Write a sequence for this structure.
């Protein structure tokens, strides 16, 4: 199965194991909770989906790689303990708490979250000394004499032996205590994830053209040549930073992440072309509706890779707009909830009291963000929104302090004025976003009419969570003119077939 399907299986398993009866007891006893075992090639996102599940469910996450653990670090260190049996004193061996289990308790103490996922990666690479203890752990969730706390679901992962020389073949007795899921790389699933995460346009465009270069592992006379989904994501991130700081993106940089020289050279050549297209087709002019008719004519006559790049540049420009609007929507929504919750207290007191109250809310929110960050239960986007809300509360506090010193001691009026201004700016963003979207459709209609390129563009907007959310909320005449065909067939499979016709 692909990584998205694997994520769903993880989520469904966690939901099931955390289900309780009418007395508040977990329905599935610990010893019947088979840990999941995700098996797949490196760099396809096995670790990432754990964070996603934890965030979506609001539970904690503790991750460990088992490759560096010895028997002592996993089970704990022995020490002598005196006990009395039948009136006789005996010296017995006890164990300190396992480092792994202690980390679970630390997370619970730090975050206040009592349920979560204990993710053990590279489980099939454990040391010989630790292997005998794994049966007991997989069945009873015990390392040494200490149990994994109730409410924490164990998920494991590992690579097949062809990808990792350290892999130990698991016997049937061990495998019979696991829920095995085999995961394979899937470009279509990764593209949806990458688009929503804002992965660099050059990488997305290249892989839309060169699909076979998405994932590759080969053993040659020159050694192992490989490229993974993780490599593409990390490369995209560093390209963003290099471009921001006006640093050269060249084969030397690309080869550090794409460790297959043929693919690295091909992408380097494409990146140069992408940069050239970005200069020739001014996305800002197109989205602002000030494009030259000659540019549309040039786009209409372009080769396949150039057309795909144009569509990608336009969609990325729009999605960036929609991401900002979505973020502002969420910030305003959270501010409204905070103000509503404190409406009576804000109305009764003056500006000075309101400042104290909002300062308190700001510190509570900052502490919550810190707890969620430690628990890995907050995404980068959610954290950005929370930090923006904290910043807005500071801005309101500054206005209230000014009101208190100037005699305008009316906190409700001050807050209403701030929120009115913020809503006005958001409405302007929405207006501009709608206009830029229609301008993009106008350009593409001029260049390609209702042909396959339009299908690619509409499909990209449909699959991206920010653009689909914007269109669903604010509408788009251009989108509704061209989206009907997408509704009648499996988008990815048929889309590939139709795009392939462009190359002929």
């Amino acid at each position: 199965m692909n990584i998205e399907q694997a994520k769903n299986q993880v989520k469904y398993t966690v939901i099931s194991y955390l289900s309780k009866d009418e007395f508040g007891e977990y329905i599935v006893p610990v010893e019947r909770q088979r840990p999941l075992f995700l098996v797949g090639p490196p760099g396809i996102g096995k670790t990432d989906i754990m964070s996603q599940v934890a965030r979506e469910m609001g539970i904690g996450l503790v991750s460990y790689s088992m490759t560096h653990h010895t028997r002592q670090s996993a089970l704990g260190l022995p020490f002598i303990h005196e006990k009395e049996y039948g009136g006789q004193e005996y010296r017995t061996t006890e164990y300190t708490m396992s480092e792994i289990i202690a980390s679970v308790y630390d997370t619970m103490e730090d975050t206040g979250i009592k349920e979560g996922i204990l993710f053990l990666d590279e489980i099939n690479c454990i040391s010989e000394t630790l292997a005998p203890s794994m049966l007991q752990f997989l069945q009873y969730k015990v390392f040494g004499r200490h149990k994994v706390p109730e409410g924490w679901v164990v998920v494991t992962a590992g690579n097949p032996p062809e990808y990792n020389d350290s892999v130990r073949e698991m016997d049937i007795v061990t495998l019979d205590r696991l829920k095995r899921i085999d995961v394979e790389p899937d470009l279509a699933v990764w593209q949806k994830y990458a688009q929503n995460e804002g992965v660099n346009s050059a990488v997305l465009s290249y892989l839309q053209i060169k699909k076979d270069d998405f994932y590759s592992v080969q053993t040659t006379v020159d050694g192992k040549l490989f490229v993974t989904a993780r490599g593409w994501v990390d490369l995209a991130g560093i390209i963003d930073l290099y471009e921001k700081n006006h640093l050269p993106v060249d084969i030397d940089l690309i080869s550090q992440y794409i460790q297959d020289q043929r693919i690295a050279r091909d992408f380097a050549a494409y990146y140069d072309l992408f940069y050239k297209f970005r200069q020739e087709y001014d996305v800002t002019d197109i989205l602002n509706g000030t494009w030259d008719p000659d540019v549309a004519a040039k786009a209409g006559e372009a080769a396949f890779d150039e057309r795909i790049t144009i569509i990608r540049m336009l969609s990325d420009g729009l999605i960036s707009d929609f991401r900002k609007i979505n973020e502002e929507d969420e910030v305003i929504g959270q501010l409204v909830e905070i103000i509503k919750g404190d409406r009576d207290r804000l109305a009764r007191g003056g500006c000075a009291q309101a400042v104290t109250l909002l300062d308190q809310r700001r510190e509570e929110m900052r502490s919550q963000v810190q707890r969620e960050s430690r628990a890995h239960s907050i995404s980068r986007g959610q954290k950005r929104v929370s930090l923006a809300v904290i910043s807005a509360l500071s801005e309101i506090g500054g206005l209230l302090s000014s009101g208190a010193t100037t005699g305008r001691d009316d906190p409700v009026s001050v807050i209403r004025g701030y929120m009115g201004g913020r809503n006005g700016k958001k409405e302007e963003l929405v207006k501009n976003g709608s206009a830029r979207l229609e301008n993009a459709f106008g350009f593409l209609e001029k260049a390609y009419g209702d042909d396959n390129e339009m299908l690619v563009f509409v499909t990209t907007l449909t699959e991206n969570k920010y653009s689909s959310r914007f269109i669903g909320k604010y509408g788009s005449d251009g989108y509704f003119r061209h989206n009907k065909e997408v509704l009648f067939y499996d988008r990815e499979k048929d889309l590939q077939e139709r795009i392939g016709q462009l190359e002929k």
The mean pLDDT is 86. The radius of gyration is 28 Å. The chain has three domains: 3-74+100-184, 185-280, 282-504.
